[in-house]
Amino acid sequence: MDRMSEREPAFDPNAANTPAALPPESPIAMPTQPLKAWSKADVRPLRNPGGWRTPYLSRLIVFAVAVSVTAAGAIQMYGVVEVGGVTLLKGALLGLFVINFAWIALAFASSIIGFAALVGRPALRTPDLPETLASRTAVVMPIYNEQPSRVFGAVQAVAQDIERLGFSAHFDYFLLSDTTDPDVWIAEEKAFLLLREQMGPDARIYYRHRAKNHRRKAGNIEDFVTRWGGAYEHMLIFDADSLMTGHAVIALAAAMEADPDAGIIQTLPLVINRNTLFARLQQFASRVYGPVIAAGIAVWYGRDGNYWGHNAIIRMEAFAEGAGLPDLPGKPPFGGLILSHDFVEAALIRRKGWAVYMLPRIEGSYEESPPSLIDVGQRDRRWCQGNLQHAALLGTRGLHPLSRHHFLNGIFSYLASPFWMFMLLCGLALALQANFIRPEYFTDEFSLFPAWPRFDAERALQLFGATMAILIAPKIFGLIVHLLHGPSRRAGGGFFRIVISSAIEIVMSSLIAPVMMLVQSGSVFQILAGKATGWNPQRRDDGSIPFADIVRRHRWHTVLGVVTLVTALLIAPSLAGWMSPTIAGLLMAIPLSWASGHLGSGLALKRLGLLLIPEETNIPEIATAARANGRRLAEAGSDEVDGLALLHDDPNFLREHERMLPAVERRPRGQIEPDRVMAAAKLSEAETLEDARAWLSAKERNVVMHDRALLAMLAKLPASPQHAATAGA
């Protein structure tokens, strides 16, 4: 008897009745957009011109406040340094200060608009459900080496919530895998089959794995659009940590239908499900301060807004005709593939004449955050390269002025760190000059008065206080709005706990800021030196990083803190006092980073009712459902998978796997694939499955799993007695 037929099947043997992993293709063209050529004739006509409103007054207020505050700060800073004359070093300090101060002044002005939009008004809520929808929307989740039970469980929860509300006929769900780890890929397929089994044969949940993750996430979505986009009016983009209530998803689709000129509608995703100290700080800030910030940019950006790459709905027509990304000239890190593609897609769609805006009133949009300081630094390294790439796109023809502002905003979000660092170094250099270098009181130029190297200490103190107030003001605005909303105040632990939590967040953020300044500055310098970043999966789970890794990452930050402290004390104890927040953060870099990823610290504060958000007191049903779904999938074995063993041991799973493989492209004669040759040779030499598992590298395992002929060779291998006993158990 054939050995394969003797194995116990794990899935439905009647594969012919199993729904296909993918629906029939419905192609749509997605041409690459030119960056240097554009004319007004390329702008589409508006379908509802009367519905287009530009918030000129809000923009005038924002820029007037930002310019006024910056000018006042510049005048005050000039008064600080001009005593005794403005030297080259003082001029550099003044210039760096004005650049950094303008950045925080704009954020301050935007938060004023957000505060005015929210304070004293009834709480914003998601619009009521429409009676019906006329369109079809694809819910699209690109995934890359993620834990299958988490992402599949989340999609299941969203689909079931939409079905409960009676709108399931209007939504399909696509899990688009770019996973490179062969075992995770097979685990995804197992989770998909388990999910299909749980949801029933009528569930329109689909799964596609790409053999080569060409152009990364942007290429993953482009592949979906060009193959299936023609069947849908909209697509709702998720990240692997995204979660949205059915009500929010339906409200977004209804908003798209109501606005025929909308290209992208972005929600405000709130951070939930976080427990480490660092993640809870981010979660609290997102919930308490985020609404004011989001309301501000929603008001004055209007229909010329930006897109954050997830938790947003996109009109398929707008994306296909306007968002095809070219590669940038030159080599990485500044050339090649566009990394922060979401900003660019939004700018190109807006250039085409479509509106891009935010609807912060739509509740029920969630995401997660990195669990530690090191994790957020690793993520920022990739974002930093992508944002600095946008410098090459500032000259793109036809962009709306606010689209260029979005690019500049993203660029400066990382350049601000080295500018801040250079400003501190200039201040130290001036202090050293004043204390240890003999000043030239009388220059060669005729003067009746000596040039005393002094600063105006009283002005400096006033400027420091004003700067801190402008920095903290958006947080205070958000705190006030949060406290004024009764349900949020009560669910967040009450007035005093929320105020204490805000104080903890402000202090911790102040201590972490100098460390992030050096981390981001290092990323900028590496990119300017020509070092490109890779594409590593993001850690989603709570958990601590080994202490040795923390020391290795932050030892030079600590050394710099010691050097700065000693230098400041040698110059003047008062200087050390002025720089104490920066020095303290650097000296505490290692324990801060350790504590940031420490689960116990975050949970202890949670038990005390601190850093608490309303979604922890009243847990969203969608989050509970997603967690329960993920737990069921994990218990069914969707995560811990040995891909080769599963394909070898289960003929029905092997058959399903082969059905999910794409059609084989004919290989040109003479073009030999080394990994395939090596994999075939090793399988030929192998006497048991254990030999194959031991000999095949990760790349060769991937080749085997993509090749039907090699899979047949794998299936014919006998299992070792030990493996057969384990599989039987």
TrEMBL record:
Cellular compartments annotated: Cell inner membrane
Alphabetized UniProt keyword annotations: Cell inner membrane, Cell membrane, Glycosyltransferase, Membrane, Transferase, Transmembrane, Transmembrane helix
SUPFAM superfamilies noted in UniProt: Nucleotide-diphospho-sugar transferases
TM region positions: 60-81, 93-119, 411-432, 463-483, 495-519, 556-576, 582-605
Record region (Disordered): 1-26
Domain called Glycosyltransferase 2-like: residue spans: 236-438
Recorded GO MF terms: glycosyltransferase activity
Membrane-topology annotation of the record: Multi-pass membrane protein
Annotated metabolic or biological route of this protein: Glycan metabolism; osmoregulated periplasmic glucan (OPG) biosynthesis
Biased composition (Basic and acidic residues): 1-10
Domain of life: Bacteria
NCBIfam families attached to this UniProt entry: PRK05454.1-3 (NF003956), PRK05454.2-1 (NF003958), PRK05454.2-5 (NF003962)
Family of this protein: Belongs to the glycosyltransferase 2 family. OpgH subfamily.
Identification of the protein by name: Glucans biosynthesis glucosyltransferase H
